[in-house]
């Protein structure tokens, strides 16, 4: 149900999932002064239609949902033990596997290794706080996006075969994962062509 707008609310974990995302946003805004909500009016004034508790159709703007105090709820102030957690450092003796292809686009039916040039290296802690480093994977195309769950992991400087059998996604090499939930529809309602998107890590 989660991948379908008409039935997502029936999913047992729907409320818990979205409540957790809302809580993470709340935590993120409190980590540093620069973490603020978007100011793009197109985003702030985007609207959605919902039925309220009296079964009346109402229009809600994004900007109406940003102040939790105005919505009359808050989150418990608890510790954040994960905030300073860091994955184990890779051995300095480990050499990253070399790039195996420079031809893109490529089909992800195998491991693809490419060389990515970083704009700057050896930045200070202050520089890292002022400007975030983001890896952008553009041109992600999903052909059968109506019926297939798609997931791939993005790893940085991973050596061949790993070091000790630990899953790559649990190591310091993992930049993140991309996941796409299919939107189940009837065959006659399917659109034409693949869905195209961008992944940021």
From TrEMBL:
Family: Belongs to the tyrosinase family.
Domain annotation Tyrosinase copper-binding: ranges: 11-22
SUPFAM superfamilies according to UniProt: Di-copper centre-containing domain
Organism classification: Eukaryota, Viridiplantae, Streptophyta, Embryophyta, Tracheophyta
Family matches, as Pfam families: PPO1_DWL, PPO1_KFDV, Tyrosinase
Protein name: Polyphenol oxidase 1
PANTHER family per the UniProt record, alphabetical: SHKT DOMAIN-CONTAINING PROTEIN, TYROSINASE FAMILY MEMBER
Keyword line: Copper, Disulfide bond, Metal-binding, Oxidoreductase, Thioether bond
Naturally occurring in which organism (per UniProt): Hordeum chilense
């Amino acid at each position: 149900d989660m991948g379908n707008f008409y039935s997502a609310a029936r999913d047992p974990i729907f409320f818990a999932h979205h409540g957790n995302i809302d809580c993470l946003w709340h935590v993120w805004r409190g980590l540093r002064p620069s973490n603020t909500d978007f100011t793009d009016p197109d985003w702030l004034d985007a609207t959605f239609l919902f039925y309220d508790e009296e079964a009346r159709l109402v229009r809600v703007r994004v900007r109406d949902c940003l102040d939790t105090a105005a919505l009359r709820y808050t989150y418990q102030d608890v510790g954040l033990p994960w905030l300073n957690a860091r994955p184990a450092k890779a051995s300095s003796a480990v050499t990253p596997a070399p790039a195996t292809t420079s031809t893109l686009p490529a089909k992800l039916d195998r491991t693809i290794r490419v060389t990515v040039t970083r704009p700057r290296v050896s930045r200070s802690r202050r520089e890292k706080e002022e400007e975030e480093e983001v890896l952008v994977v553009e041109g992600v195309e999903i052909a059968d996006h109506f019926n297939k769950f798609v997931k791939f992991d993005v790893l940085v400087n991973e050596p061949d075969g790993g070091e000790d059998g630990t899953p790559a996604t649990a190591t310091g090499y993992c930049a993140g994962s991309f996941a796409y939930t299919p939107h189940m529809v009837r065959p006659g309602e399917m659109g034409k062509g693949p869905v195209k998107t961008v992944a940021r890590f």
